[in-house]
């Protein structure tokens, strides 16, 4: 059996070693759980007691809502206006007229060096127009949200940036810069630009009438959107309706009529007043005209068809001029074309003529020439010649339809023409065995008849050979011929 050896006793005094207590793993877990419960308890109870926890800055998933402080009241009378004294905190915004989704830069001064400054965005607390009531206060008032945090540097200056929300609908928002744990606070108003919408087109080049698609957003839900080409007033080129999100998506529209060159499509919300624009390059229109026939006589109809004009516009038709009173107007279809139009030519026109076609809205213009042909009537008598006393009547063709024809006669060279008969041709310009003239007894050689159309101004000539009678012929002189009223033209 072994015996235990005992250590010899120390001969001198011995110092005891200090040992640190060991922390077990169990105690670490308990401490971590207690810390977590304290943090959660603080976050849940402190806001309920009216105590706001500090924001973590713009990295928070959802900015903390707080009740911001108000700057100190003005204390100095300057030219009748109460203003802040020197050393007061101040901020400026760039830009001050902001667009939804745009970046706003806040520049501050007058804060304590090294202090943390929180930036908040909320409804303006000041009336925007004379007589306008202030927004509600207390629990009913919307609280501002933290949008940025910055540290004041030397001389108490800081710069912070934040993105203006896309969903803001009130016209003016208040930006507040507030020092943490201090009394430095400053405010400035940011006005929301009327024109915060966005518009994009599927094409940036085209001519009036081309179909493209429009996408727009940033308007009030369900409001009417007026669409203009190259302008922002008057009657819109078309109207659309925004959906519940204030947008329209890939909607087919036609390029409207506007000046050739660089222009803009403008979309204006009827309720919100918000506007958006998109650049567009408008190409020229190249209209064309086809006439049929290219040569006509008076009373005949010339027909024309056209294309290349703006859809749905009136085309003004003028004769031999680009301005002045149009002689007629024709309407184009959805493709900017028309056909089947025509106009009857009057008797007064002679020779080469031009029709000028001008789009009433587009001002696109084109001309086409044509010719007015003269009438070339032919006439003959019932006989080629005869003795004095012969009764002559007339046959005629190719006069103007339904016009009156006056007959004059020359019985000797150099004699003045004498009106001796009148008749009216039919719808084909012809007449048969009409008029009556008795060759006088003293007539010798040749009698010349001229048949003159009173509308066409065309003349047909007939030579009548008078044979020698061999002696005097006793034929009573004819009474002067008077044209009946119904044969004056």
UniProtKB/TrEMBL annotation:
Chain residue ranges for the region called Disordered: 1-23, 122-141
Gene3D superfamilies hit by this protein: Neocarzinostatin-like
Protein name per its UniProtKB record: Uncharacterized protein
């Amino acid at each position: 059996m072994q015996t235990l050896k005992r250590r010899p006793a120390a001969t001198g005094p011995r110092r005891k070693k200090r040992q640190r207590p060991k922390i077990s793993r169990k105690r670490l877990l308990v401490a971590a759980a207690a810390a977590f419960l304290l943090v959660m308890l603080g976050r849940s109870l402190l806001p309920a007691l009216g105590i706001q926890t500090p924001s973590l800055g713009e990295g928070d998933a959802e900015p903390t809502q707080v009740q911001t402080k108000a700057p100190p009241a003005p204390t100095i009378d300057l030219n009748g206006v109460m203003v802040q004294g020197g050393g007061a905190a101040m901020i400026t915004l760039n830009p001050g007229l902001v667009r939804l989704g745009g970046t706003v830069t806040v520049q501050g001064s007058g804060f304590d060096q090294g202090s943390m400054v929180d930036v908040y965005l909320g409804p303006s607390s000041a009336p925007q127009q004379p007589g306008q009531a202030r927004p509600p206060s207390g629990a009913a008032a919307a609280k501002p949200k933290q949008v940025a945090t910055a540290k004041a540097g030397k001389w108490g200056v800081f710069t912070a940036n934040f993105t203006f929300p896309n969903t803001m609908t009130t016209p003016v928002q208040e930006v507040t810069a507030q020092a943490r744990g201090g009394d430095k606070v400053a405010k400035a108003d940011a006005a929301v630009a009327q024109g915060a919408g966005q518009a994009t087109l599927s094409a940036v080049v085209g001519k009036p009438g081309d179909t493209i698609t429009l996408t727009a957003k940033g308007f009030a839900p369900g409001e009417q959107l007026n669409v203009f080409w190259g302008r922002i007033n008057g009657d819109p080129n078309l109207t659309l309706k925004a959906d519940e999100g204030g947008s329209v998506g890939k909607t087919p529209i036609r390029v409207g009529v506007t000046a050739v060159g660089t222009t803009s499509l403008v979309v204006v919300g009827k309720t919100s007043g918000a506007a958006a624009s998109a650049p567009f390059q408008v190409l020229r229109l190249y209209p064309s005209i086809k006439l049929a026939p290219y040569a006509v006589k008076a009373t005949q109809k010339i027909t024309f068809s056209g294309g290349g004009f703006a859809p749905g516009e009136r085309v003004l038709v003028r004769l031999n001029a680009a301005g002045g009173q149009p002689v007629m107007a024709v309407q184009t279809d959805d493709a900017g074309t028309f056909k089947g139009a025509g106009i009857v030519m009057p008797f007064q026109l002679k020779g080469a003529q031009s029709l000028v076609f001008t789009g009433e809205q587009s001002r696109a213009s084109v001309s086409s020439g044509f010719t007015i042909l003269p009438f070339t009537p032919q006439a003959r008598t019932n006989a080629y010649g005869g003795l004095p006393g012969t009764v002559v009547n007339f046959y005629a063709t190719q006069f103007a339809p339904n016009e009156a024809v006056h007959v004059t006669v020359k019985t000797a060279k150099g004699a003045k023409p004498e009106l001796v008969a009148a008749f009216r041709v039919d719808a084909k310009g012809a007449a048969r065995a009409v008029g009556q003239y008795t060759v006088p007894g003293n007539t010798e050689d040749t009698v010349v008849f001229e048949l003159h159309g009173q509308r066409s101004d065309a003349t047909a000539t007939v030579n009548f050979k008078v044979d020698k009678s061999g002696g005097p012929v006793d034929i009573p002189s004819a009474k002067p011929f008077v044209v009946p009223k119904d044969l004056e033209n």
